[in-house]
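Continuing the batch. This is chain 6 of the set; chains 1 through 5 are on the previous pages. Same settings as before, nothing changed between runs. Recording input and output for traceability.
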Amino acid sequence: MSSDHPTVAQVGLVSLFVTALVTAQVTASKVLAFGLPFSLPVAGEALVLPGAALAYAVTFFASDCYTELYGKRAAQVVVNVGFFMNFVLLLLVWSTIAAPVAGNSPVGAGAFQQVLGASTGVVVASLLAYLVSQNWDVIVFHRIRELTDGDALWLRNVGSTATSQLLDTVIFVTVAFVVFQGVPLELALSLMVGQYLFKLLIAVVDTPFVYLVVAAVRSRNADLAEPAVAD
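Output for chain 6:
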């Protein structure tokens, strides 16, 4: 970028990324099940996935737009800062859980902790999967862009998200459910399939929106008319 001053689009994408990331953390405890009109190998007749799946998928949309517009190094800074912001979120949540509850509080201390107090296994799994998959997403997105000379935005959006979401799903389910909770391998595989298929669908669906965001930002910023150079 020719200016050191952040644009509205730049701040907006970072804000979207962080908002989706925080939302994913606080919605992870609810397990979702979407019925299917057919049966899939391993998954069966329903896609079972954590409530964080949709919000977390949005983080990849935001990071792909950001990488396309501002380059790999800038995107990795956002991803890694977001990683440490997870600890800020956990600190604030757990400090609120530890604080005394009022007698007339509409939400009891037990219910509050059950919903927002993520278990150690889920926290470790989420942070590990995030650190690996988000950095992988930025690297692969940038590499595909280099190989295609800046063409085929759809390919780098879907390709980077498909591979990074696979890493994220395998790491998260393995650590959170198999290592910490002793979930049987059959159930773990079902969770992996359900989450990954859902995330892959989101990656395909959000591709036109990546095009729209990138085109809109470049039309308003002459210095972003071409894809960000490697750095």
